[in-house]
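job 3f2a | input accepted
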Amino acid sequence: MRPGGNRGGGIVYLVGAGPGDPELITVRGLRCLRQADVVVYDRLVDARLLAEAPPAARRVYAGKSPGRQALRQQEIDALLVRQARAGRVVVRLKGGDPFVFGRGGEEALACAAAGVAWEAVPGVTSAVAVPGLAGIPLTQRGVAASFAVVTGHCAGADRLDWAALARAETLVVLMGAARLGEITALLARHGKPPGTPAAIVENGTREDERVLTGTLGDIAEIAAAAGLASPATLVIGEVVRLRQALAPPAAASGAGAEAVSRLA
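job 3f2a | predicted structure (264 res):
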């Protein structure tokens, strides 16, 4: 048992479902899911993963989409605590990793405050997996030795140092589709060259994945013209050029590859 109280009662597993493809959940995450009495899941969790829970398990949707939220965070916290106190095995199933912009820390604190046993089951974060599977390594010898990750929900927030983010060798922005123009403008205003290569991946790791490429100066316009929607992962930096060589053959023949070639 990891942090928590008495395993003799119920327990809450904070499980990362991975970036989208159901095969990218961890072995431990799948084991927890298969023994669950209650599964509290988010919008981006693949339905095939939900089918792995026992047929009798209660499935509770707690997803959030732009402008909509099935349950408030306080309601989710209370639900997890209540079900665990009733002696049930509760799986809180989240896309990516629970502790990377997933409010896993808030839910862990709620369990700890209530004396409820809980365990973190890390997931593969989309911040790393989505670019990598699209042919964009976040670090590459001689190109980038570091990367930064930020949520698009914080665009314009005073607590973010946009000047520092503009200096990042590779910058990954999660949940930024709705504010793409604002984000790119902020980075340009703080010194990021408009010609810096950029890519945005819609539905990363899924069968309907799309990758659009361009530069900091035009990626927002490209995405808007293509009707790109969330979930989307934005990558900005010289590593985007590597997609031309590393993209899967099907992607290399598409419009995204043509956009990258213009950067060479």
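job 3f2a | The radius of gyration is 20 Å.
job 3f2a | closed
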